[in-house]
């Protein structure tokens, strides 16, 4: 919150406020920064050194909801114009509100599987909640996340692409099954076997960022 907004809502904060994650008791709960600091301490005590690969971890299920709502709410506001096509129980409202209500209910009921209310078609108000729901439950397991996105949704090419990008960013290429990577054709066009995807990726790696001092050329050329 901006300082002026926080001051208007709570006054000057000098003690713990009632916390909804602690049954509205006025007690402390760790912030994400505190959690990271003590997880690092635990890591050092257990291993005696920093092992970067062991420190990476997927976000907690609730993080996906909280982060989306935090980012989308200021942009969307409280407009009441949208309704998912496949869920007649959803109220008219902005996307952040749908995510907040429906995905929290899904998390509380522990129902990750696809149900009739999750139409998951090619419509933003269906695609985003469906992708977030898969990530909430399976973000720690890249293979299962993509398998669930492919099998449990209607517009599965779109939703699996979003889920795949997210788990790829979280876990890296090596976390994906070797059989999937070996089976990539690299095609951009279905009937043209030009392996252009790999060419584009290589060009992206070799192209310096704008205003970068990195020189162009192959890695070998740049290292000499």
Provide a quick synopsis of the model.
The protein is mainly alpha-helical and 224 residues long. It is built from eleven helices and no strands. Among the domains are: 60-181, no CATH class; 184-214, no CATH class.
Shape: globular
Largest sheet properties: none
Radius of gyration: 22 Å
SS element count, helices: 11
Secondary structural class: mainly alpha
Q: Can you give the helix content as a percent range?
A: 40-55%
The separation of the N and C termini measures: 49 Å
Order of helices and strands: HHHHHHHHHHH
Mean residue pLDDT:
81
Low-confidence stretches: 214-224
- How many β-strands, per DSSP? 0
Strand % is under 5%
The quaternary structure here is single chain
Task: Provide keyphrases for this structure.
224 residues; mainly alpha; single chain
Write the layout of secondary structure elements.
Elements: H1 3-10, H2 32-47, H3 52-55, H4 61-76, H5 95-109, H6 124-138, H7 142-151, H8 156-171, H9 178-182, H10 196-206, H11 219-223
């Amino acid at each position: 919150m901006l300082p002026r907004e926080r001051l208007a809502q709570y006054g000057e904060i000098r003690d713990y406020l009632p916390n909804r994650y602690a049954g509205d008791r006025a007690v402390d709960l760790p912030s994400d920064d505190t959690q990271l600091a003590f997880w690092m301490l635990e890591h050092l005590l257990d291993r005696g050194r920093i092992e970067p690969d062991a420190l990476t971890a997927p976000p907690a299920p609730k993080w996906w909801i909280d982060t989306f709502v935090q980012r989308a709410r200021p942009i969307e506001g409280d407009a009441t114009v949208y309704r998912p096509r496949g869920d007649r129980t959803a109220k008219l409202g902005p996307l952040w509100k749908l995510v907040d209500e429906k995905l929290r209910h899904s998390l509380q009921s522990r129902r990750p599987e696809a149900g009739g209310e999750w139409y998951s078609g090619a419509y933003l108000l269906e695609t985003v909640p469906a992708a977030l729901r898969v990530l909430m439950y399976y973000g720690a397991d890249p293979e299962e996340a993509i398998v669930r996105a492919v099998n449990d949704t209607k517009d599965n090419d779109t939703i699996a692409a979003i889920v795949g990008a997210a788990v790829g960013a979280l876990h890296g290429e090596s976390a994906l099954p070797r059989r999937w990577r070996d089976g990539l054709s690299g095609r951009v066009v279905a009937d043209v076997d030009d392996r252009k995807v790999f060419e584009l990726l290589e060009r992206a790696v070799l192209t310096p960022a704008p205003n970068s001092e990195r020189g162009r050329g192959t890695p070998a050329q740049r290292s000499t």
